[in-house]
Amino acid sequence: MVAECFSFCLQIILLFNYYTVCSANISCRNEAGEPVDWFVIYKMPRYKIGEVGSGVDYMYLDSSAEGWHMSKYMVNTSQGALVSTLNQLYMGKAYESNSSVYALYNDAPPLTDYIRGYGHTKGAMLFDNSQGFWLSHSVPHFPSFPEKGYVYPSSGKVYGQTALCVTYQYKQFLQIAQQMAYIFPRFYNCSVPATFMADLPQLVQLCKGSKPPLSSDKREEQLFSIRGEKFVSFVKSEQFVDDIYTGWMAQVLDADLLAETWQRQGHELPSNCSLPKHVMNIKRIQLPGSVRFQSYYDHSKWCVSLAYEDQVTCLGDLNREKAQMWRGGGMVCTFNPLIYKAFRKMVDWYIGC
């Protein structure tokens, strides 16, 4: 009996230690602060059809849900998926550690004016020699500098915004670093400790503000999350002078795409059906329920396949805008049916050819 009790207690201790170690790993975090493979956030614009909102409410989606749910938190408070994920960098001064790599990038950095010459791209990475997260988003002036802790900018309240977080093993970040070389992000705060430098030469150069050499004008890379979910990263440099959606992604994915990107009047690219696979602009979004908003008030960048059988969803950096044909940037695509269904159902009106 004593032996059986000892064996049972030992199993409990081992399970507890296993859970503690797994929870301590760097990863995307859900609304409760628990590790997740991936999540998507859709922050609502302040101005919706027929109403004015707070500008800080958001919908949340990960693999544990059947679809979007409105978060009980706000993006500018101290709880929620974004805070929990970024606090792995901020809390305990992990940004001063020599055991992990981090990089914060934004063409409109916090406390700084918009900077030309860099890719139109925004995001954050934090990883050690085991695993970490890559958070790509569309919010200017975000995230805040590590020593300031989590701060959501007031400038990020007006427009709709999206964020995609994926947890990857360390070896995947070696590929992500190569993708970053094409985008040429504005790294405003980053650290690559000496023990990582040999593996990440592109990231070292980018942190110094210099461009690594490129072998072409664009690059496609398959990435796999910590649980084996497939993502495809499409990145282009400023040398690829074309609309990334029409001139490349739609043709490679072999799918007609519906694209939701911020299009300023007089700068937007029209729906395009000149190539075998077409790209058409979404003009209005319908949220679960009765909430709708015009694409003009949506600063997010995403697209979905027109045909349901293709189940393609991409989120990323570039607008369908003339000037951004000359900018570096990229998109991360997934064939996950849950993500596709969530985004495809929101398409309320698009401009065909």
TrEMBL record:
<protein>
    <recommendedName>
        <fullName>deoxyribonuclease II</fullName>
        <ecNumber>3.1.22.1</ecNumber>
    </recommendedName>
</protein>
<keyword id="KW-0732">Signal</keyword>
<dbReference type="InterPro" id="IPR004947">
    <property type="entry name" value="DNase_II"/>
</dbReference>
<dbReference type="GO" id="GO:0006309">
    <property type="term" value="P:apoptotic DNA fragmentation"/>
</dbReference>
<keyword id="KW-0378">Hydrolase</keyword>
<dbReference type="GO" id="GO:0004531">
    <property type="term" value="F:deoxyribonuclease II activity"/>
</dbReference>
<feature type="signal peptide">
    <location>
        <begin position="1"/>
        <end position="24"/>
    </location>
</feature>
<dbReference type="Pfam" id="PF03265">
    <property type="entry name" value="DNase_II"/>
</dbReference>
<comment type="similarity">
    <text>Belongs to the DNase II family.</text>
</comment>
